[in-house]
Amino acid sequence: MINIDAQNHVKGQSIYLDDIQELQGTLYALPFDATVAHAKIVSIDLEAARQSQGIVAILTAKDVPGENQIGGIIPDEPLFAEDEVHFRGMAIALIVGDSEHHCRQAAKLIKVVYDELPVIVDPREAQAKGKLIVPPRTFRLGNTTDAWAQCDHVFEGRSDVNGQEHLYIETQGAYARNKEDGSIVVSSSTQGPTAVQRTVSRVLGIPMHKIEIDTVRLGGGFGGKEDQATPWAVMVALATHLLRKPVKFSMHRMDDMRMTGKRHPYSADFKIGLSKDLKILAYEVTHYQNAGAAADLSPAVMERTLFHSTGSYFIPNVVATAYSCKTNLPPNTAFRGFGGPQGKFAMEAAIVTAADALGVDASEIQKANLFAEGDEISFGQIMTQVNASKAWDDCMATYGYADRQKAVADFNASNDRFKKGLAIQPICFGISFTNTMMNHARALVHIYYDGSVVVSTGAVEMGQGVNTKMVQIVTSIFGIHPSRVRIESTNTLRVANTSPTAASAGADLNGKALEIACKNLLARLKPVAFADADPESMQIMEEWVYKGNVKTDLSWTDLIMKAFTMRVALSENAHYATPTIHYDKTKEKGHPFAYHVYGTALVEVTVDCLRGTYDFDRIDIVHDFGQSMNTAVDNGQIEGGVVQGIGWMTLEEIVYNEQGRLLSNALSTYKVPDIYSVPKQINLKHLDTEGHELAIKKSKAVGEPPLMYGIGAYYAIRSAIMAFNPSATLAVDAPYTPEKVLMDLYKK
Ligand code: MTE
Ligand code: HPA
Ligand code: MOS
Fold it and tell me: Which ligand minimizes its atom distance to the CA of 297?
């Protein structure tokens, strides 16, 4: 089935926030933000700005009727700065006027006097000074202290990995309107409508039932709108609440890049111990997460880093610690993989460090330690239905690794200027929100008496195709044509108390709830079809009712009208909560993931050793989709994820100066992958597997895991550099921008 949005996207007819028809009298909002990263606010002079043409109001913390607080996990983030600013881009005031242009003119007239304080941008410095978002956490398995003595080889090192700009094509934005009795409706480009609703309620000091959040779709979120769509929606809601006018805000790209958080940069120290047959016996790692100036989702991201700190590998003795370090940068946030990729990157750094020192191919260590059935992960979950080696072996066989290795060696032996590198990247990603209580969802289905169906769930469509999957669930149960099914916007009035669409679990959680709703409706329709026969023999295929395998003269529409006249309820609301999962934070043990997604990628790169530039010749993937319910959508997730992962590891470099000012603040200074930098070939094979019961229709979650194939890009480049400059000791420090590659090619 083709993506239900394909036609409208291509014709430009899909509705995003900026396409919503504006009401007459709509005002425009513009946040005014800090121009220093850490300071006491001595004074704010708004007078001239208030007199400026077209300005209706300038709101600050003093105008907040409820709590001036938007922190989700920890209440440490004011909506508007009060006495201090903690990062450049922190909102101080909201300018509201009759046009965006007038707001921008007024912004120039606001005068803030700061008393500047020391700025910290480095997580290790923050940790040394005791500036932590939450206390550190440690996951332990076995006993590393004893294990070191049994190791034949022990290596230590450090790895650093940069952040990443989400660069959703649609920037942040929201549009608020009044309803009756002080109720408000906010259209928000958010992954988490309920989070927005709750925070509007908190800041305005009015109950959640007076606030309706509506989300049609996002032009991409990638985690950047899980938490960080909230402030803008709250600001316009506040202005609407106080001014009784519709208020809209749609962010400019450079403002979005400057003011919002990104993927967390991490720095890590590791120690790895191996036996002589390359089994990893012990691993210790300490992660320093650069959280930025407020918690946002950092504690949860840090947790997932720990959950994925041993990557795809079984290690019997582990100590993994993580610090969430408070710096004067915009609060960093969710980004595809949610800290998992950073945990994995350090693990791969440890393996490569060991491989280089031992003079073996990193793949030998990787292969020898892949998770197998019954293995225990550092947090106590026992691995079942493990496809790690199956995906690895299939990838090696399908794409002829041995021959490829030889071809690369031959190429490198006969070329001076160009060198090739190969790297293998096995992935293993846990599916479920790490916070067990978030793993539930609801769906609401109405069958209208003309036979058309409307569906609401908590899932937010952001390009990942979740709505198409929802249609497939309905059509497969009702046996009707997709044109009969419409997926409504995600709306807090229709589906309440939702988790954000995140953790790759959107389709599983909402899909399972929808499946239950449809099955309940079908069960009610069966006795309507035949009063006399066994209702269980009823099935619907291609819009006709069958008794067993015999087609009756009852169509879907007849059946629905008959049910209506018999006064059978044609609406259903269902709830699903993932079974089997649990976690005990006091012990750091449990079973937090419903299942894992596996796969293996082989990356090949050619480095121009004169220029430091590189081309990805190909990436060859074997991926565990389970039983993919939509190969077009799922293959698209792999391709997009891979390219985003490669971008993170290669071209995309976020640079802040010592004063916490973002230097890579536009697309001219922040390079993302384009058609020239993507691999020349992306080969993808579906691993032949059963799928998992807890995956919707046995079709495994696919959103985040493929990003981690991109990590192979870093190590492939590194391998090519080593072929050119074998005696160099290279730091493990991503991304490998061409400048850094050039430096390493000629490093002594
Ligand atoms: N794909 C597109 N096109 N746009 C997005 O914003 N977000 C990713 C992934 N794939 C994203 C995407 C992230 S971070 C997640 S968690 C999942 O989609 C969320 O959707 P799902 O739970 O339905 O997989
Ligand atoms: N993944 C993504 N988003 C989240 C999670 C998670 O595990 N927990 C809270 N938000
Ligand atoms: Mo995705 S980072 O869980 O929104």
Answer: 2
Distance CA 581, CA 87 (A): 38
536 pLDDT higher than 90: no
Active site (annotated) includes residue 212: no
- In sequence order, the β-bridge partners of residue 660 are none
- Angle 277-372-364 from CA coordinates, rounded to 5°: 35
Ligand 2 centroid to residue 434 C-alpha, Å:
6
| Shortest-distance Cα residue to atom 4 of ligand 3 | 223
Q: Classify strands 485-487 and 453-457 as parallel, antiparallel or unpaired.
A: parallel
pTM assigned to the model: 0.98
Give all domains of the chain, ordered by start, each with its CATH number: 25-117+172-250 (3.90.1170.50), 266-434+586-745 (3.30.365.10), 440-577 (3.30.365.10)
- How many Cα atoms are found within 13 Å in the side-chain-facing hemisphere of 569? 10
Cα–Cα distance list, 512 to 432, 504, 692 (Å): 13, 14, 13
Residues with CB under 6 A from ligand 2: 226, 297, 300, 304, 334, 338, 433-435, 438, 502-503
The whole-angstrom separation of Cα 638 and Cα 599 is 11
Contacts of 123 (CB under 8 A, 6+ apart): 265, 266, 267, 288, 289, 290, 291, 323, 325, 327
| Contact between residue 645 and residue 709 where contact means Cβ atoms under 8 Å apart | yes
Ligand 3 within 6 A of CB of 168: no
**Ligand 2 center to 528 CA (angstroms):** 43
Tally of CB atoms within 10 A around 491: 20
- Which H/E stretch holds residue 428? strand 418-431
51 CA to centre of ligand 3 in angstroms = 43
Given this model, what pLDDT does residue 530 score? 87
Q: What is the pLDDT of residues 278-309, one digit of tens each?
A: 999 999 999 999 999 999 999 999 999 999 99
What pLDDT was estimated at residue 533? 74
For residue 412, the CA-to-ligand 2 centroid distance in Å is: 43
Using CB atoms within 10 A of its CB, is residue 173 exposed (0-12), middle (13-18) or buried (19+)? buried
**Amino acid type, 661:** R
Between CA 472 and CA 410 the distance in angstroms is 49
Q: What are the pocket residues of ligand 1 if the criterion is a CB atom closer than 6 Å to any ligand atom?
A: 220-223, 336, 462-464, 466, 501-507, 637, 640, 701, 703-704
C-alpha–C-alpha distance, residues 16 and 229, integer Å = 14
The ligand placed nearest to the CA atom of residue 335 is 3
Residue 173 carries which side chain, given as an amino acid letter?
Answer: G
Segment 701-745, tens digit of pLDDT: 999 999 999 999 999 999 999 999 999 999 999 999 999 999 999
- Omega cis (within 30) before 735: yes
| Cα-to-centroid distance, 699 and ligand 1 (Å) | 15
- CB-side exposure of 164: number of CA atoms within 13 Å? 31
What's the Cα-to-Cα distance from 147 to each of 121, 139, 275, 318, 339, rounded to whole Å? 36, 16, 10, 10, 27
Band the pLDDT of 415: cuts 50, 70, 90. very high
686 neighbors 631 (Cβ within 8 angstroms): yes
What residues pair up with 485 in beta bridges, in sequence order? 453
Sign of CA dihedral 527, 575, 6, 476: negative
Pocket-testing residue among 336, 439, 499, 648, ligand 3, by greatest number of atoms within 8 A of Cβ: 336
Phi, psi values for residue 592, rounded to 5°: -75, -20
Q: SS3 for 255? A: helix
The pLDDT of residue 656 is 98
pLDDT at 328: 98
> What digits encode the pLDDT tens for the residues 374-405?
999 999 999 999 999 999 999 999 999 999 99
Here the tokens at position 290 are 């650069």
Find all residues with CB under 8 Å of 630, minimum gap 6, and list them. 1, 465, 468, 469, 472, 699
- Of all residues in the chain, the percent with pLDDT exceeding 70 is 100
